[in-house]
Structures are given as C-alpha cells and as structure tokens.
Amino acid sequence: MTGRPPTATYRLQLGVDLDFAAARALVDELAELGVSHLYLSPVLQAAPGSTHGYDTADHGSLSAELGGRRAFDELAAAAQGAGLGLVIDVVPNHMSIADARANRWWWDVLEHGPASRFADHFDIIWESHEVRQRDTVLLPVLGDHYGRVLDAGELVLDHTDDGFVVRYSDHVFPLSPESVADIVRHEETGRLDAINADADRLHEILELQHYQLCHWRRARHDLDYRRFFDIDTLIGVRVEDPRVFADTHALVLDLVGAGLVDGLRIDHPDGLSDPAGYLERLAGATDGVWTVVEKILEPGETLPRTWPVAGSTGYDFVHVVGGLLRAPAGVATLTDWWQDNVDASTWDEVV
Fold this sequence. Notes:
Layout: E1 9-12, H1 20-24, H2 27-32, E2 37-40, E3 44-46, E4 56-62, H3 68-81, E5 85-90, E6 94-96, H4 104-112, E7 137-142, H5 146-151, E8 155-160, E9 163-168, E10 171-174, H6 177-185, H7 192-196, H8 199-206, E11 211-215, H9 219-222, E12 227-228, E13 231-236, H10 242-257, E14 263-266, H11 275-285, E15 290-293, E16 311-312, H12 315-324, H13 329-341, H14 347-350
Parallel strand pairs: 1-2, 2-5, 5-14, 7-11, 14-15, 15-16
Antiparallel strand pairs: 3-4, 6-13, 8-9, 9-10, 12-13
C-alpha cells in the first residue's frame, strides 16, 4: 500500500471561493489542529459553473477554475511540507453533458454517433425499436415539443470555431459530417440565414444528426442513455470496460503514482454495473492505495468483504454518533421555546 492511511481527515469543498491556492493557505492551520489528510472534493475539470465538482466534463485535466495542475502541485507540496497527505474524491459513474462543448468525448459522440471512438464510453442504447431513433441519442433539452420549437425559429444553424453547429437557447450541438456534406452539396454554406428561415429545410438537416432534440418531458419514458438518478445532464460511463477505465483514470493514477495523492474516496460505487470488479482494478492500478467508498449502508448491512477497500465513508457511523448527541427529551423543550419566542417568516428573521 502506498502512502499512509489517514487518522483524521478534513474535507474542503473546493470552488471559486476556495481554489487550490486558497486551500494551500489553510494547510498550516489544519496541521496544527491535528489533521493528517486534506480530503478534497473532486479536482478534475467539471462542467462550466459547477459549484461542487461531481459533474466531471474532462478526465484528462485538473480544474482550470481551481487553478489547474500547477496550483494543485503547489497545494500538494505545501501539504507534504506540513506533514499532511491528500485524499481526493473520484467520480467513476458519470460525466456531465450539460455543455456539450465542455465534454469533448460527448461532442464527438454527438457528431459521429456510433462511429465515434467514444461511443462505447457512455452507457447508450443505440439500437432503438423505433427506426427513426436508431443510431441516435435522445436529447431532452427543448422547452416545448420539437415541431413548435422548430416553427418558432428557436433552432438556429451557425458556423463557429467548432465548425457547423445548431444552437438552442444556451445549448450548442455539432452537425454530423453527413449533414455538413449535404449543406455543401447544396451550396448553402454562405446562406445559413436562408436555411434558418426555412423550417422544412432545417428539419431535413436535423434529421441527419446522430441525436434527436426533444421536449424535456420525454426523458421520463424515452431516454436511451443511463443517467445519474433522474439528472438528465449526468450520463452513465461504462467504466467496467478496461479501455474506458484507462481513459477516465489516467490522470488520477498519475497523481497517485507521483506520490501527490495518498488516498481516494470513490463516489457512489453501487451505481456501477460491477463495483467489485472496478475496485479490484483500481486497487491493482494504484498498488492498493488507501481507498474508501461512499456506500450508504442500511441498518445491519456491511460492506462486501470482497471489496478491496479500507471501508465506507462512515455515514452509518456518523448517524449512530449523531443519535448519541441528541436527547429526545429536549425536543419538547426546544419546540415550546420556539413557539413562545419566535415569530419569524423569513430566513433572516429566523437567524
């Protein structure tokens, strides 16, 4: 096993107000408190505007918003200098597709469909029982039914640095090579405004895409990709595939191998098709680095003994401790006091 196991972790929720540099400034103070390891929320590049980091958009880079690789290395060096280790949160189950441009794997899938080299990275059902939906992925992003949105002129073709795209509100999607060839064949590259003004012609082009834009309500029954719970913008990743595991974990393994990271916290392993297999592959790739999993245990449930991990994240333990700190007899006293003394209708008044 590499590194040393934590004796006391301190979690930092990283974000625009607490980036790698700001975290570095806390190292000495936390070391004085007796903390052995900083536990960092996800550090990989997340979706634009993410406030939590669990919506990874790029597994190959550290978050630019948090300071990037240089700032992370400086944080790791400062932590080591103070005698602290680093534990990072890893999200193997899903990726963000909220902004197609931010997730270049997803962009490539939308552009090339099943022919994309990343098509098998995502948990997508390409073979629909409906002929019209075969080799396409359903995108439930429209605020109304497709025909109404089309007739209202809310779908617009454009040409950007990413090539030909279709815009809808804040969404941008690529055009397939087939549709671009069709536009060029009709010598329409300089007349996008004319296409945008012709709903029938625009519909013909959209029919050539490897995705189908639809009303958001269709996600409940017709979605053809696995999502995280009911969040349409988080798509399931097929991390059980060795090639996908390698692509999604290369940077994390590099950080562990370089001695910058001493432990891993795995987000929602029970969402994976083969959590035991995943954890075994991870243990082998990291030489058994200290790893815990966010497995919420029901009363009486224990982690499978075959999982090569140090344990769970301890929600069950915290629940027991929290119960010891709550005196049931105090509830009535607090309720009576509140009713007698507080007449508040807003949050500020309650505070």
